[in-house]
Amino acid sequence: MSNLDRDAVPALCGGRGFVVAEPVRELLSPRRVKLGESTEVRRLLPNLGRRMIGAWCFVDHYGPDDIADEPGMQVPPHPHMGLQTVSWLHEGEVLHRDSTGSLQTIRPRELGLMTSGRAISHSEESPESHARFLHGAQLWVALPDSHRHTDPHFEHHAELPLVTAPGVKATLILGTVDGTTSPGTTYSPIVGADLALTSGADVRLPLEPDFEYAVLSMSGEAHVDGVPVLPGSMLYLGCGRTELPLRAASDASLMLLGGEPFEEELIMWWNFIGRSGEDIAQARSDWMSGSRFGEVKGYDGGPLAAPELPPGPLKPRGRVR
Fold this sequence. Notes:
With 321 residues, this protein is mostly beta strands. The chain is 4% helix and 48% strand.
């Protein structure tokens, strides 16, 4: 998914200066952003004062939206560089096309994982004949410097492993939980899981103490480490945890996101992640000139134009602890 803000603001991400080395309970409120003509998303990352969670650097939550008489998601071809995109649905379908030739319909609790590497472009749209409701999340993972120029590719995993216990079912999106590992390709120590809680659940989920974590509420009423987390909000949890208490007053669904704190300093502007202002400026120039990012074939419409670069220099910053 694209960042469609026309006044794109650079996010100075990475470094360990913003990492909380102990357990915390920091509730993050979303910023509402229009995505095309008919979809509004709740943007949780980047957030004021909280730019990343491990390598997770961008989180949008959308829906449930009634699109029975609407076109639904319509995101024209746009570029990505230096990151992976994760498409995750609870309701509806999204048709993915990209410049490597991939064409795939992604359905609820199937993993659509696109690795941009050095450069890719893609589009996302609700199929012409689509379900009534659209509900899901779009997330980005920053690639470490050693892998940010890798070949672009797309993965679709319709079957994902589960971790189950009384009151909870965890679907592994990326990484490992309790010894069970997702087939999705990762390039840094990271975890993502979809947690389905039944009404009355009172469970403890095992965690890695060296990871920092956050929990995004997708639906229902849930308490995360004693904090009520409403749908569309996210609770940052810091590091140093070996387990996470979860309770549900009704059936509820959460997304667990975590990973080793991302030490590299980077710049995220529009749909690009780089290490210098020159990286970003070159990517924008290449996209606007029609080079490097390839062509998305089959989409009925033209590509997105990149916003103007800000007047000042783009520099990666961050305090190293």
